Amino acid sequence: MTDTTDTTTTLPPASPSTTNARFVHGNEGYFALVWRRFRRSVMGMIGLVMVLLLMALFADFVAPVDPRANGIGFAPPDHISFFEPDGSFTFVPRIYPIVETDELDPVTFQPMNGPDLKNPHVLSLFVRGFDYKILWLIPSNIHLFGSRDGAPIHLLGTDKFGRDILSRGIVGSRISLTIALIVVFITTTVGTTIGITSGYMGGRIDAWVQRFVELVLAFPQLPLYLALTSLIPITAPSNVFIAFVIGVMAALGWAQLSREVRGKTLALARVEYVRAAMAIGAGDGRIIFRHILPNVMSHVIVGVTLAIPTIVLLESFLGFLGFAVKPPLISWGLMLQDTGAFSVIGSYPWILSPVVFVLITVFAFNALGDGLRDAIDPY
């Protein structure tokens, strides 16, 4: 008699692997995968937060003092204290304003400045100050921090005209970053278009375009920038100056990206799906913009984040040489003009504070670019 007992062993259900667990709620798209990789980068996330803070859309709200208001020239930074005038400790921060004293500097024979210990100013959040417009539309006078009595505070000191350096640095980020963003937008558009078209078309067109690119790359930029300081009249309005600077930077900045995009296009033009599109009769425009361009965008995006700090450094350098916007506009390059005299730096070192804004911006965009590069192309 045959034994029909079922000896099949029932195995427990297998737990989903880590890889399969990602797709429980459906397949992840490309941008979702990039964002998931990017979140793992600590420096990339730090750079992203800093870039968002640097966008300067709410610069007037963050600036504690009117950046154009005059006061005591070359006043040192105010020190935040947690002690009352009688020496007792308090949890409410306060500053002792800098005022002119009766003493004279033994070197310059200028009136010396010192803290007024009898009239402290209590600091607070969301205080009233100078009038401005939120996003250039909504009038307001509320500021992120400042003194409760509305007195000016100078956490980074003042320049030679008594204007607050911290507020001018915050508001000046608008011009510096606007120039950088416009230049990078133009150079990215032109460089990507020329590079991808040259690499795809090949032949004689590619040869002539690359000779022109090499000419632009070989052009000495620094002597040109130095010569520009004598070409623009001193009386020229700031909008003409900004347009001229943007035009020159964009005219010389697109070639490097174009060469890089061309190299990636040459490699992509030989892959199977591009050859299949050619075989079925797809037009050149469709192949370039639907098949090749999406695959070079990762390189372009990273290039943009790394090009912005380069333009910011260039604008600051030109401003230091005197090639900066004219008042009443404010930029970091214009603020650095005050550091041209060595004697001034030695006596009033706090006027170098605009350098800190430039360093923070360069670090933020470089960290963001490194994080994006690792997330977009992990290999």
SSE series = HHHHEEEEEEHHHHHHHHHH
The shape is elongated
Per CATH, what is the topology of the largest domain? MetI-like fold
CATH superfamily of the largest domain: MetI-like
Q: Largest beta sheet: what is the strand line-up?
A: 1-2-5-6
Which class of secondary structure composition applies to the elements? alpha+beta
How does this model look, in words?
- This protein is of the alpha+beta class and 379 residues long.
- The chain folds into two domains: 78-153, no CATH class; 167-376, Orthogonal Bundle (MetI-like fold).
- 54% of the residues lie in helices and 12% in strands.
- The protein is built from 14 helices and six strands.
- It has helices spanning 18-21, 30-39, 42-54, 59-62, 165-201, 203-218, 221-231, 238-253, 255-268, 272-279, 284-320, 332-336, 342-347, 354-376, and strands at residues 80-83, 89-95, 98-104, 111-115, 121-134, 138-147.
- The strands form two sheets. The protein has a four-stranded antiparallel beta sheet. Strands 3-4 form a two-stranded antiparallel sheet.
- Helix 10 crosses helix 11 and helix 11 (284-320) runs antiparallel to helix 14 (354-376).
- The radius of gyration is 29 Å and the shape is elongated.
- Residues 14-26 have low confidence and may be disordered.
